[in-house]
Amino acid sequence: MDFDDISYDKHADLLYDLATQTVQHFKTYLSEEDTRKVLRCYQRDIARFIHAQMQAHYWEDVAGYEVKISKGYTELKQSAYSHSVQEPTANYRVEPADKSNMARYLFGGFQKCLYPVQKFDSDSERKLAVILERDSLKWFKPAKGQFQIFYQNGADHPEYQPDFVAETAATIYMLEPKKRTELEDPVVVAKKEAAVKWCANASDHAASYGGKPWCYVLIPHDAIAENITLEGFAVRFA
């Protein structure tokens, strides 16, 4: 009952049932007196273990949410990177020598990126940056807290931080390169659903003042090639 996601009034029958199951489990191999000792000494650990099992079966029945937009503009969040002073800033157009260790490289030389330097998690991301430099008006990799998009993962609602955001003459794109084998992962799907809803709400708000619509694009990593246009990705994967 000490957990925020447990309501005694709503879950009392379930809690009593789980408590009974717990006692019966220990009594299968302990005496009643030893069972009492275990429950008394380890009650907090047992409660945390049961709560973790409950989270795996968490579900939420919600008809919908009322969206209220308090402001349509937020300043860019500061973005910090760790980087060796002996390692020169890499040219984003050049494929690095060690693609398996992309975290070591700090890339620069951008003309349309809102930050002077960027880091990439994969060479596919670097290639996508080349495309954005060519096809967009401006782009960036959002820092944590920039968009405040939250998705459901069990009983938790962590923040989703999209990989890229790019603006063209007609559309603002939220782009997420992902390994093809991970496209059906439940967490990836939950992030996508949250981002699609966010983009739909942002598009409705933008339409009220003649702004550009937002579009979420989940791109398989092996589909990224420098000769493909940003609009081409949107047609195939939005």
Condensed summary:
It is built from six helices and eight strands. The protein is an alpha/beta fold. The strands form three sheets. Strands 3-6-7-8 form a four-stranded mixed beta sheet, with helices on both faces. It has a two-stranded parallel sheet with strand order 1-2. A two-stranded antiparallel ribbon has the order 4-5.
Highlighted features:
single chain; 238 residues; alpha/beta; four-stranded mixed beta sheet; two-stranded parallel sheet; 36% helix
Question: Could you describe the 3D structure shown?
Answer:
It is a single chain. The chain is built from 6 helices and 8 strands; from the N terminus they run H-H-H-E-E-H-E-E-E-E-E-H-E-H. With 238 residues, it is an alpha/beta fold. The model has no long low-confidence stretch (mean pLDDT 89). Strand 6 and strand 7 (172-178) form a beta hairpin. Strands 3-6-7-8 form a 4-stranded mixed β-sheet, sandwiched between helices. The protein has a two-stranded parallel sheet with strand order 1-2. The chain has a two-stranded antiparallel ribbon with strand order 4-5. The protein has helices spanning 8-27, 32-41, 43-55, 123-135, 186-207, 230-237, and strands at residues 90-91, 107-108, 138-140, 149-150, 159-160, 164-167, 172-178, 214-220.
